Amino acid sequence: MENRKKQNFLTGAGVLAIATILVKIIGILYKFPLVRLISTEGYAYFQGAYEIYNPLYAISMAGLPIAVSKLVSQNVQAGRMRDAQNIFRVSRRLFLTVGAVGTVLLLSIAVPYSLFVHSSMNYISILVVAPCILFCCQMSSFRGYYEGLKNMTPTGVSQVIEAVIKLVVGLAATYVFVNRCETYYDTHNIDGFLHFFGVDVYNHNQFLAAIYPYSAAVAISGVTLGSMAGLLFLFLHNKRKGFGFTREELVNSPPPQSDRTLRNQIIRIAAPVALTSVILNLSNIIDAVTIRRRLADVVETSLATIKGLYGECFLASGTLDSSINQYLYGAHGTVLNLRNLIPTITLTLGISAIPVLSAAWQRKDHREIKTTIESALRICMTIALPAGLGMAALAEPILRLLYPSEAHSLPITVPLLLMYGPFVFLFSTTSPVTNMLQAVGRMDVPIKSIIVGSVLKVGLNYVLVGIPRVNIHGAPISTALMYAVMLAINLTMLLRVTKVKINFVSVFLKPFIAAAVCGGTAWGSYYAMTHVLSLNAKLSTLAAIVVGGGFYVVVLLFVKGIAKDDVEMLPKGEKIAKALAKFKLLG
C-alpha cells in the first residue's frame, strides 16, 4: 500500500500547474490546428457543444471533488482514517447517480437547445460529448480523494492522459473525416450538384457548410474518449497503490460513521459548491444564448452594416450569408482559447489551497491562513498580469502565429484579444478566491456574487451585441465587468471573514509594474525586429515573447516581487530562498 504523499500548498499547486501547462500545450496542439481543419465557422459548432456541456461538467469537476477533498482533509487531520477511506466509497456511488442523470439530461436537451440558439445541427456534437458527464463524475471521486490527501499527482497525470487521447483521436479522426469528405466531393460532384448529408450542394462553399457540424462532432469525440482514458488510469492507479493509509493507521482510527452520515456530509458541502459552479456556467449558457441570438438578430436586421465591417472576412473565408452569425461566434471562440489559457492554470492554486486552508481554518492557524491567501493571490497576479498584457501587446502577431489559415478573421479577432488581454487577471483570480471562500465555509458568497455579475453581463450583452457596429465586440466588455464585480465581492468577503490584511504592494503593485514592462518590451522588440530589422514575423513573435518574459523576471526580482514564503514552499525552496536572499532579491 502506498505511503501517503503529503504535498504542501505550493508543491501541490506546482504539480497541478505543471500538469495544466502540459494540458494547455496539448490543447494548443489540438484546438489551434483543429480550427485550421474545420474552419472558424465549424469551430462554432464545437464551441456550441461545450457551452451546454460545461454546466454539467462543472458539477463533476468542481463541486464534487471539492467536497470529497475537504472532507478527506478534515478527517485525516482529525485522525479518522477509516472515515476518509469510506468517503471515497460513498462518493463513487453518489457520483455515479449524478453522472448518469447529467448524461441523460444532456442527451434530452441537445435538439431543443440547438434549435433555440439558431444552430440546428449543433445537437450532433452535443450527443457525442454527453457521455463525458458520467466518466467525469466517476473521476471526481478519485481526484477529490487524492487531493484531500494533498497528493495532486493522480489528478495531474489523469488530466494529461485525457488531453493526449483528445489530441491524438480528435485530430486524427477529424483529419481523416474531412479529407474523405473532400475526396467524395471531388469524385461525385457531377455538373455542379451533389446530395450530401441530406443537403443539396451546388458549390464547394455549400459543401463545407454541410460537413461543418459533422466534422465538429468527430473532433469532440476525442474529448469523450479522453475522459474514458483518464477514468481508466485513476481506477488502475487505485487498484495498484491503494488508499494511502497503513494498516496501523486504520486499526487505530475511531469507528467510521455510517454511509448515510457521510453521504449527507458530501451533499451538504458539494451542493453549495456545485450550485456556485452551475450558476456561473448557467450564466455562461445564458450569455452564449444571448450573444448568439443577438448576433442572429443583428445579421438579419443589419446585414449591410455587418458586411460593411467584415465583408472581406466573409469573402475570403467563403462564408454564406446564412452562416455569418456562426462565423462571428466561431471567431469569438478562437479568441476564448487564448483568454482561457491562464485561468485554467491559476485554477490549480484554488484547488490546492482548499485542503491546506481548510485544515488551517479548523486549527485557527492565522499565520498559515494569511500565508496561503497571500501566496495564492500573489502567484495569480505574477502569472496573469504579464500573460494578459503580453497577449494585448502582441494580439495580432500571436493570432497570426496560432491561426495562420484564419488570417481572414483578424479584423474581428484582434480587437477581441486586445479587449480581453488587460482583464485576464480578473478571470484568473476569481476562481481561486471562490475556492478559498469555500474552504472557510462561506459557500454562499460566490453564489450571490455570481448572480449579481451574471445579471449585469446578460443585460450588457443584450444591449451591446445588439448594436450593429459593436456586435461580437460587446462580449469582452460585459465579461470584464462581470468578473470585476464578482472578484470585488468575493475578495472583500474573504479578507473580512479570515481577518487577513494582505500586502497590497507585494500582491498587486509589484507584479503590475513588472508586467507593464513585459508588455512594453514585448511590443517594442517585435516592432524593431519586423519593421527595423525586417525579420520573419513568426520568429519575431516568439522572440518578442521571450524578450518580454525575460524583462519581466528581471524587473520582478529588481522590485523584490517574489516573497520568501512562496519560494520556501517550493521543492528545495529553502536553498533557493537563501540564494536569492544573498543578492537581496526577495520581498
Whole-number radius of gyration? 25 Å
Average pLDDT over all residues: 85
Unreliable spans are 1-6
Task: Please report the distance between the alpha carbons of the first and last residues.
Answer: 42 Å
SSE succession: HHHHHEEHHHHHHHHHHHHHHHH
| Beta-strand residue fraction | under 5%
Helix content: over 70%
The computed structural class is mainly alpha
Tally of helical segments: 21
| Total domain units | 2
Annotation keywords:
single chain, 587 residues, mainly alpha, 2 domains, two-stranded antiparallel ribbon, 21 helices, 82% helix, disordered N terminus
How is the secondary structure organized here?
Elements: H1 9-77, H2 81-116, H3 123-129, H4 132-148, H5 153-188, E1 194-196, E2 199-201, H6 204-241, H7 247-251, H8 259-301, H9 303-317, H10 324-339, H11 341-363, H12 366-393, H13 395-402, H14 410-420, H15 424-439, H16 444-465, H17 475-498, H18 504-532, H19 537-558, H20 564-568, H21 573-582
Antiparallel strand pairs: 1-2
Task: Describe the structure in your own words.
- The chain starts with 8 loop residues before the first helix and ends in a 5-residue tail after the last helix.
- The chain is mostly helical.
- It has 2 domains: about 10-500, no CATH class; about 505-585, no CATH class.
- It has helices at about 10-75, 80-115, 125-130, 130-150, 155-190, 205-240, 245-250, 260-300, 305-315, 325-340, 340-365, 365-395, 395-400, 410-420, 425-440, 445-465, 475-500, 505-530, 535-560, 565-570, 575-580, and strands at about 195, 200.
- A two-stranded antiparallel ribbon has the order 1-2.
- The chain contains 21 helices and 2 strands.
